[in-house]
Design a protein that fits this description.
The structure is a homodimer. Chain A has one domain: Thiol Ester Dehydrase, Chain A. The first copy, chain A, is built from five helices and six strands; from the N terminus they run ααββαββαββα. A six-stranded antiparallel sheet of chain A has the order 1-2-4-5-6-3. Chain A is globular. The two termini of chain A are 27 Å apart. At the A-B interface, α1, α2, α3 and β3 of A face α1, α2, α3 and β3 of B.
Chain lengths: 160, 160
């Protein structure tokens, strides 16, 4: 089995996102970094502005949701799991307007752990996990945050 | 003072959204209907698909957020108020995948009322109000819902 390369795997995922989600392509989503634990995606401001010239709330939420989705997708790929991953319930807080290019950083929510997620997936062919994301703002404070549940369903099991 | 024409006012707002928010233009957002109470916006599926071929969560949330924002913006315009309207905290539930063109319908949340909102705006030059939106799904059930707080700030007051 090949050694898992977090950055290459994340870059492949971003390429996949760009190719298969037209809105992500329009947003200009790029990989920031991935260390096997947290995933950072970035966007230029220009295609993501609102009527006030700052970042459109829909773009902030889309980027945070994709970063959260990416964290789950990458953990699954690392373990050779072939799943569809869906976002479930999300809570978004828009705290400050964003006036420049922006990033979203996603990682597991407090209290969530991969061991429970993967043991549930093994037992039931589906499992859910909570992820938290933030768009860093000025002075170290987040400009927006998202907490979301993601559900993974094994593809093979679903087709049986 | 001209009589307020809900449909013409909503169409002007959708034109404004299309012209000033690039992502809304890409999404192909169109006016469904507006009766002075609820606002319906629609999107074709094609520019809004995800990797699974159903509607991208970011598109569902963007459309619901814009419909909610529009309800507040139109109520302000009807009363001649010149405000910036920002989305605050939002809770989104993705309940069913959406496999076709979709709409989002927005109206005030239960317990929210315009009278309180406008009296607060008069007193403080800013006010917040809760809006609920849904993307109708099959069999009369929603495919996605959003509850969001919107904050309106008077432009003149802000510039003083």
């Amino acid at each position: 089995m090949q050694k898992f390369d977090p950055h290459a795997s994340a870059q492949a995922l971003v390429n996949f996102i760009q190719a298969s989600i037209p809105l992500a392509h329009t947003m200009g989503i790029e990989l920031g970094r991935y260390d096997g634990d947290s995933l950072v995606l970035g966007c230029p401001l220009a295609p993501n502005v609102n009527d006030k010239g700052c970042a459109f709330g829909g773009s902030l939420t889309s980027l945070m949701t994709l970063a959260g989705w990416g964290v789950v997708e990458l953990a699954l790929r690392q373990r050779g799991e072939d799943c569809d991953v869906y976002v479930g319930e999300s809570t978004v807080r828009y705290l400050e307007p964003v006036w420049s290019d922006f990033q979203a950083e996603a990682r597991l929510a407090e209290g969530a752990d991969w061991a429970t997620f993967f043991s549930t997936l093994s037992a039931r062919n589906r499992a859910r996990i909570a992820v938290r994301c933030q768009v860093p703002g000025e002075n170290g404070k987040p400009a927006a945050t998202l907490e979301a549940q993601f559900v993974a369903k094994r593809r093979v099991a679903a087709a049986e």
